[in-house]
Design a protein that fits this description.
mainly alpha, 9 helices, globular
Length: 205
């Protein structure tokens, strides 16, 4: 869907430029944007390497494991039907911690592993290996839906991506967005949790 959306926007822009005599501007903008995109990618690669490296050090040092234990009550509240010893627990907590720190790149692998484990959990339920509500094949479980929504809402204490973008484009105070970012993502996360609990309640009825 997004492919069609972007292709349509590009096509409309080119047609509009052709009819208004601004094709040279479009050509120049395409060339300038290409150079700018490469510069931005190099900048973001450095930021990504730095923060993902810190995340790896924290993992090796046991900091992530300790933080995971501390937020386990929150995970149990969000995923009441998830067995406490299930492998998905560790990946979910790692994903949440990475997102809170604004490390979307580091959160993605953990999120994919969590979804994979939640898929295996659903298959085990269908085969009767683990007790719990069983959805028909092709329908996402409560845990999958909750995890996806929480992951999208993503409470962030340090919006690394936005800070890096603001720095790249010459902001006087790149970190000035932190307060607004915390407020916005806190509200989105609270709304996400309330929505998940409401929909979970409806599914149980």
């Amino acid at each position: 869907m997004l492919n069609y959306l972007w292709a349509g926007m590009i096509l409309i822009g080119i047609i509009f430029g052709a009819f208004t005599g601004r094709m040279p501007d479009i050509t120049n903008a395409a060339l300038d944007s290409s150079k700018e995109a490469i510069t931005l990618c190099i900048t973001m690669m450095g930021v990504m390497s730095f923060w993902v490296g810190l995340m790896e050090i924290a993992t090796k040092a046991g900091i992530i494991r300790a933080a995971s234990r501390r937020i386990r009550p929150l995970v149990n509240f969000l995923f009441p039907e998830l067995p406490g010893d299930h492998p998905a627990q560790e990946h979910i907590t790692t994903n949440i911690i990475a997102n809170v720190l604004g490390l979307g790149w580091a959160a993605t692998p953990a999120g994919l592993r969590a979804m994979d484990e939640l898929g295996k959990l659903e298959e085990d339920r269908r085969r009767g290996r683990i007790a719990g509500p069983v959805r028909q094949r092709g329908v996402a479980s409560n845990e999958m839906c909750t995890f996806l929504i929480i992951n999208i809402s993503s409470l962030q204490l340090i919006p690394v991506n936005v800070i890096a973008f603001r720095s790249q484009y010459g902001s006087v105070n790149p970190a000035g967005i932190v307060g607004a970012g915390i407020m916005a993502t806190a509200i989105s996360t609270v709304v996400a949790v309330v929505y998940c609990k409401m929909m979970d309640g409806k599914r149980r009825v």
